[in-house]
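# nightly structure sweep
# worker-07 picked up a monomer target from the shared queue
# config: single-sequence mode, recycle default, output format = structure tokens
# input follows
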Amino acid sequence: TYTSYAIHWDWNGNGDKTLWSWGWGGQGRLGLNNQTARSSPTQIGTGTDWSLVKGGAGMGFAINDSGELWAWGSNQGGKLGLNDVVFRSSPTQIPGTTWSWIDCSHSTVFASKTDSSLWSWGYNASGQNGVNDNFAYPGSSNGRSSPIQIPGYWNLEALELAPIPSRAGAALKA
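# output follows
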């Protein structure tokens, strides 16, 4: 994806956990409100409470200490989970405040909430969302643009996403 993300942890006890990106900026994938490439780490926004960051094919996601999930970048097939297919050049919140974990394959995204519920969105032409269909967002030939809950509760320590660009995932049900 030609893009890198990191959380800078302030080990001096100031509690500073800032979000950084660098690389190719096309489709807003750096989250810096433009499409400019950066050859060195550049801070995304002003937040200092980030706890998790993940990147996929042209997209980035981050969860803050309040459990808010944010997305930016390419939105082909609705893979940002924002109920549309418009790319975002700056972080935009996905509804909800109890997100605890996120991971993504090439264009399919899985996230969980603090109650161990598992959610999926994005590319779904082969049923990758795990909800017994191959639904696609209107205007998209291949994806679901909003988080949908996968029935049951899941052991996320055992979730494995197949390598890019595979169309599969596997998890143990709790």
